[in-house]
Every structure is written in C-alpha cells, then in structure tokens.
Amino acid sequence: MSEQFTSTPQAAASQKQAAPLAGIRVLDFSHILAGPFCTRLLADFGADVVKVETATRPDRTGVRKGPSDTGGRSDRPAPYLNTNRSKRSITINLKTEAGYHLAARLAQVADIIVENFSAGVMTRLKLDYERLRPVNPGLIYVSMSGYGHSGPRQDWTSMNMNLQAYTGLMMATGSENDPPIAISNSWNDYIGGLHACFGIFEALSERAKTGVGANLDLAQFECSVATFGALLVQSAVNRTVPPRMGNRSLQYAPQGVYRCAGDDQWCAISVQSDDQWRALISAMGQPAWAADPRYDTHLGRSRNHDELDASIESWTRQFEPAEVERRLKVAGVPAERMRRIREVVKGPDASQAFVPLEDPKGGSMLATGVPFRFSLSPVLPPAPAPALGEHIGAVLKGWLNLSDTDIAQVDKEGALV
To answer: Which value, to the nearest 10 degrees, does the dihedral of the CA atoms of residues 69, 72, 74, 80 take?
Structure first.
C-alpha cells in the first residue's frame, strides 16, 4: 500500500484542516456526472461534501452494481466510485414533510449547495435558492441544468448526446461527409463541472469580502458553446461555415495521424512552422521536397495535403510508432505515438495522473488525480466513495448536533430512507 494511505487518523485530520477548502460544507443534491464531478473536485480540495441520496431512487450512475468477482466493491460501479470519492452519503426521503425539514436544516448550515436537476425540480421540493436565502444569506447555490433556469429552453431535459447535437459540436468533429460524430467522453458534463467550480471559487472569494452568498445559474449548453473559440469567429465574424477538418488543422500543415508498422498502430504528427517542415523533410530523407515550391509555405502544404499525407504514411509504415516518434522528436518535429488507455495507465508518467483509491474491503482501483499541486496546501489522497447512507449518523451529529435519540425520531417520522 502506498505510504500516503498509511498515515494515522491524527495526521489525516491535520491534512484535512490544511486543505484549500477545509471547513467548507457542501450539500450535494446532484446526480449522474456534471454535478458529481464538480462536487468531487470540491472534495478533492478538502471540502466536506455530503451527497444527498435516496434508497428508492439512487443516482443513475450507482444503479448498476459492480461485478462481484473482481475482488473489489460490488455495491457501486467503478465510474461512481471515482466521481463520488471523498464524499459522505446521507439518505433522505424528500417526498415526506419530515424529510424536507431535515434537508432544509442541513441547507441552513451549508456553505454550498449543488444541484443539476431539470429546471423547477428544486422549487417543487421547496429547496430552491429563494426559499433558502433568508435563512442562510451566505449560501452559494449552484444550479447546473442543461439549458439554465430562464429562456425558451429552460424546461428541456438534456443529456450529453443531446447537448452535443444542439450546440453544433457534433458537426465540428469528424471530416466532411461524415455523419455527426460525438465526443465519447461526456464532454458537456466535464466542461459543465469545471465551469461550476470556477464560479464557486469566485463566489467564495466574494463572500469572504461581503459575507453574502450567490445564486449561480449555470447552463451546460452555454458552457459547451463557450469552448468553441475559433469556430465562433469563423461563423459570426467571417460569416463562413467552419469546415470539418478531421485530424487536420487550419493553422498547421501537414498534420494528421499516420499508420505505422504493426497492427492498427499510428503516430500523430503536427508540423507547425517552416523550420519544422524542413526538419520533417530531413528526418524522412526527402531532400527533393525542399526544392518543391508547392511546399514552401503553410498555404501550399495545405493545398497539397492529400499528396503529402500519402507520402508521409509511406514512410511511417516502415517503422513502429515509437521509432517514428523518436526520429521526429530528435529532429524537432512534434510527434506522439498513439497510445491505448491501458498504455496511458501503465506509462512512466502514470503516477502523476492517477492515484490509488483504496477500498474499505481491502481492494484498490486507480482513479484520476488532481492535475496540479498547491505549493502551500496539500491536495488530499482520495478517500473511498461512500456506501448508500453510510454517514447518516455522522452528518446529522456533525452538522446539526443531533443526538442518537434525535436521529431515531427523525427516522421514525419518515425523514430517512
């Protein structure tokens, strides 16, 4: 077991206090990925994130059980374990009056609430910002619906695939004449989660000055559109339809992913300057290209991209991708062999990108880490994702100072499930 997971409870508590968001309470009503990814980042930074769940309608990413023959946990699937690590779980029946009152009491002492339901859900539950602000004026309330809580699309239900279609992102990927192609890795959820964290940190900074919280109404649609950059310039300013470039680029040529020796082996090459073009010529042993005026400039190379691609690939096919990568890097040409996910996980730099996530039952899995380091405050090693309702007693005692008798009473009243 890694040394960082063998620290004493006292040392762990000390680290928790020193973390960037130590002492910040987050009441997490979110589900699936966008909201849970946001609150996972907050937990990574040391916030006390309490995930509000229900045994009758669990988070969709937690509905499917994990395989029982892998030696690890079988109560939650692997994606849930990573996205909801370092959080605590409490199960509340929000459909009962007692459950509502319990959730409202937790909201009164929370610093941050995060929810990513469709617009109107939290209002129907009587847990919207306008109801909570009078009793908790410092509350930072984050809503992360697909299309926001105002405007003509506010009642639309959204999922990652729908948002990629509606934003036009699917027509910015792939090549001309391809059908619309989605980015497979839940792009909108991760982009939405990152934008939400950015807003939360800004709101915390403002609250430190004013003592007043904020209502952050985030539309995942707008988060996705905000990343389009040059595509927006072409469409809105130049009044042109951005071409579907596939692996090519408007700025660099030649650029592409070229087949190498071996079964389904590739190397990505991107020539970004005339000097790199001359370095590519030298590495490939193609001195004749240096005298060909068609290739002197980026524009000329772009116009003759098909011909260049064919010639480059006839060269890369002679070597395994690692050798292509080596030769071009030595020459000063940006090149990287294409790696499978398993190679990334087992690569020499994997320890910087992944961290072990220990299982309370003795198992372990790799989880994605936090991609930067604080010079003064530590980013804590991840703690296991909670079992359903695992921390009911601890949360109600710690946040609300309830006794065992009090907890038994709210349970009897139907607040807990």
So the answer is: -130
Distance (Å, whole) CA 381 – CA 354: 11
CA 173 from chain centre, in angstroms, equals 20
Q: Please state the rounded mean pLDDT for residues 345-363.
A: 82
| 8 A C-beta contact, residue 133 and residue 213 | yes
Give the whole-angstrom CA distance, residue 29 versus residue 100.
13
Phi, psi values for residue 59, rounded to 5°? -50, 135
Residue 397 CA: distances (Å) to CA of 90, 255, 286: 12, 59, 74
Sign, CA torsion 67/68/70/74: positive
Q: Peptide bond preceding 152: is omega within 30 degrees of 0, i.e. cis?
A: no
Euclidean distance between CA atoms 223 and 195, whole angstroms: 7
**Is the confidence at residue 417, as pLDDT, over 70?**
yes
Domain boundaries, the chain: 3-228+349-412, 255-342
Look at residue 7 and tell me whether its pLDDT is greater than 70.
Answer: no
CA distance 30 to 228: 26
pTM: 0.87
Omega before 254 within 30 of 0, i.e. cis: yes
User: At how many degrees (to 10) do helices 392-400 and 97-108 cross?
Assistant: 50
* Protein fold of 3-228+349-412: Rossmann fold (3.40.50)
The number of C-alpha atoms within 13 Å of 384 and in the hemisphere containing its C-beta is 19
Q: Which amino acid is at 335?
A: A
CATH topology of domain 255-342: formyl-coa transferase, domain 3 (3.30.1540)
Given a cut of 80, is residue 149 above it in pLDDT?
A: no
